[in-house]
UniProtKB/TrEMBL annotation:
This is AcrR family transcriptional regulator. It comes from the Bacteria. Residues 30-49 bind DNA. GO terms for molecular function: DNA-binding transcription factor activity; transcription cis-regulatory region binding. Keywords: DNA-binding, Transcription, Transcription regulation. The keyword DNA-binding applies. PANTHER family: HTH-TYPE TRANSCRIPTIONAL REGULATOR BETI, HTH-TYPE TRANSCRIPTIONAL REGULATOR RUTR. Residues 7-67 form the HTH tetR-type domain.
Amino acid sequence: MVNDGDTTARAKIRDCALRLFGEHGPDAVTVRDIAACARVSPGLVLHHFGSKQGLREAVDAHVMSIFDAMLASAAEDPDAFASGEPQAVAGFAEMFASQIPADSPIPGYLRRLLLSGDPVGRHLFRQWFQLTLSATDIMSANGNLQPTPDRDALAAFLLVNDLAMILLHDHVADAIGTDPLSPAGMRRWASIAFDVYLHGAFTKEDS
């Protein structure tokens, strides 16, 4: 589980900014809002970060460090990430769910990073794409994946399916009645995903 154990005032301010930025967007949040959330003075926010922009950069760096650690862990054992087993089909979403606490503000912040065209969001997506590309290469070499003439498009397709569960988390949970990132939800999602990937979702008409 991601938790750096930092309980300093600086970390508390950063974490409040992360939550508020994710909920409302950075432009709609003021230094006073962040100070009120952290129960400190606006002056202390500026003392630690210099400006709201400085605080936003600190939040971005914090989120990046969390995902860098996750990706480094996955890179150490790429075969497990690309095992082709049902529990691994959810790929990045499963890795995300196992590392990020259920009440974390990171999913909300991640949505804004990826959907707003933010440079940090583009950087993260590129990293995840490369990891997924490596995983599909391993699965192909192991015979767990059908040959494809367009490996980039396949990796992007699989990654987007994973990210949809994170970015549309609340809507998916409401639709299926289960938190898709909970252990039970991941098992349910992975079972369907594995069946669709392996057998397809549509029947073929007789020609």
